[in-house]
Write a structure and sequence with these properties.
With 150 residues, the chain is mostly beta strands. It has one domain: Beta Barrel (OB fold (Dihydrolipoamide Acetyltransferase, E2P)). It contains one helix and seven strands, in the order E-E-E-E-H-E-E-E. Strands 1-3-4-6-5 form a five-stranded mixed beta barrel. It starts with 6 loop residues before the first strand and ends in a 13-residue tail after the last strand.
Length: 150
């Protein structure tokens, strides 16, 4: 049996994706999503906690993220965890764990995505019901962690 590094999240985007292009021409999208957890404590009081996840998408998937995702959009992300490290200007080792997106499904209504259009001559109307759009898969090309410009 092999190893497994798999992450599945459904959450809301906390900021518009940041688009970058590496010197190699490879597209990158950097954004974060929030997932909320609710539970009742021993006294029966409702508790809530948000977790924030840093997401990186590459290639065609990055271009789609940069074009269609915006703050507040609900998305389903499948990916893998990756931790990288670097030394800051004071020589202190820093770490950042990110999710490298491999699949993405937009869950918000079509009208809530920037750049989303419908055919016809009139203005597009946002859909009121949530609609799951097709899962979009990442390119298979492997990216070197040293290529990330941040």
């Amino acid at each position: 049996m092999g190893d497994l590094n798999k992450v599945m999240l459904i959450g809301n985007i906390t900021k518009d994706p940041e688009a970058k292009t590496l010197p190699s021409g490879q597209s990158l999208s950097n954004f974060s999503i929030a997932t909320n957890r609710t539970w009742k404590d021993k006294d029966g009081s409702k508790k809530e906690q948000a977790e924030f996840h840093n997401i990186i998408a590459w290639g065609k998937l990055a271009e789609i993220c940069n074009q269609y995702l915006k703050k507040g959009s609900k998305v389903y992300i499948e990916g893998r965890l990756q931790t990288r490290s670097w030394d800051d200007q004071n020589g202190v080792k820093k770490y950042r764990t990110e999710i490298i997106a491999e699949n993405l499904s937009m869950l918000s209504s079509k009208g809530s995505y920037s750049g989303a259009t419908t055919s016809g001559s009139g203005p597009s109307k946002p859909q009121t019901q949530e609609e799951e759009l097709p899962i979009i898969q990442a390119d298979e090309e492997e990216i070197n962690i040293e290529d990330i410009p941040f």
